[in-house]
Amino acid sequence: MRKIRLIAIVLVALGLSLPMNIASAEPDIFSPSSEPFGFKFREWTAQWWQFVLSFPGDVNPLLDDTGERCTIGQRGPVWFLMGTVVGESKRTCSIPEGTALLFPVINSVDVNVTNQTAKELRSELAPCLDAVRDLSVEVDGKPIRKVKLKNHSRVRSEVFEITLPEGNVFGFAPGSYSPAVDDGYYVMLEPLAVGKHTLHFGGSTAPSAACIFYPDGFSVDVTYSLDIVPVSLK
Hints:
With 234 residues, the protein is an alpha+beta fold. It is 23% helix and 34% strand. The protein has helices at 2-23, 41-52, 118-130, 146-152; strands at 78-80, 87-96, 100-111, 132-139, 142-143, 154-156, 160-164, 175-189, 195-205, 219-229. Strands 1, 3, 6, 7 and 8 form a 5-stranded mixed β-sheet that branches. Strands 2-10-9-4-5 form a 5-stranded mixed β-sheet.
């Protein structure tokens, strides 16, 4: 009798623990030290900026607050999702199954327009990202641990060049500029299952006189309503 009672207690314990483990599971992400689809993270973050800055301001997905521009220019195994210039944004986006999603929780770019070196540009950016004080990412209500985001998701891009169109978001003359560098906290989600999903992410920086771009700090709060649609190649 005692043995049966012990087995019953164990089964009850297991039954209670299974839902708790499932509920606490983190979203599946690529490690920043990995090379998803043949590129290092610092290469992907450079490509993210090259993609974003290739669009004029009036159609730029970074300035889109509805998601109507989320498919423009997207292709391949990784799609680029946007943060915001500042503040809150809510977007709806339809994405083909099997697609990984790269997005910045919070990031910044610096571009040479005089005669600065990549090292000098990185020195300008560093204090701004050093001032990050809050980061959060949730997929369908399941969060990535904050300590994981803070300690492992910061990426300093490789040095890259950009080509800006007429009417670009910087207001610069159209043309090619280099060097350019990025610094930020990034996440690349593994492909989500077919169906509806909610992605929410955000972050903020503390005021810092050492940050010449936004000394008063800034915050980002983004929500994506995602529809992962099946793909048939037959």
